[in-house]
Amino acid sequence: MWLCDLDGTLVDSFPAHEAAFRRAIAELAPAALPGFRYAAHAGASTAEVAARLAGDPETAGRLARRKQELYRELVGQGAVRPFPGARRLLDRLAARGRVAYLVTAGSRASVERVLAGSALGACFRDVLTADDVPVSKPDPRFYGLALRRWRVDPDEAVVLEDSAHGVASAVGAGLATLHVHTAVPAPGAVAVGGLDDLVSLVEVER
Q: What is the top-level taxon of the source organism (predicted)?
């Protein structure tokens, strides 16, 4: 059983998320722009990041909605694409009889648009998004809810994540976690350089 993150893990969405956030912040919370670094928030939901940046709930809500609107425009323009090896990995897992679920802090509307544009949607048995969970990564309850929803035994699951927030959520839920696109994993995870490396590992898996 594989529980996969989406943004930054299977698709290269970091530049689009950062661009959308920076434009939304410039429009609605300009005082927060000089110190904004998307890398510090990667893995958290848009609503969570907006709440950290805005001075009040109303501004946070407007900021989150505007960022999502801008991000979806970028997705529609082809700014978000799968990483090399993403489809090969998911196809190989399916060929080996491994079930894959998507566990992402993205909003459902944004995730559906990315999956449609990347042709990855059919690879997952089900999808859990930020709209389904009352907390955000790195809270372990994010993955905990996924385990309960799909009745997954933690000892039979492998998590694929790219961010420290995501790894912390998965490890905190007691899950074996692979930290992809890095040589230095977050605490509790095993580093994997790229998705093509994982394809090779799955090929030799018994």
A: Bacteria
Alpha-helix residue ranges (DSSP H) falling in the chain: 14-28, 46-53, 57-76, 86-95, 108-118, 141-150, 164-172, 195-204
129 and 32 in a single domain? The answer is no
* 122 Cβ contact list (under 8 Å, min separation 6): none
Count of beta carbons in the 10 Å neighbourhood of residue 96: 11
pLDDT digits (tens, 9 = 90+) for 120-131: 999 999 999 999
Cis peptide bond prior to 140, omega within 30° of 0: no
pTM, two decimals, is: 0.92
Residues 100 and 179 in one domain: yes
| Residues near 59 by beta carbon (within 8 Å), at least 6 away in sequence | 28, 29
Contact 140/123 with Cβ under 8 angstroms? no
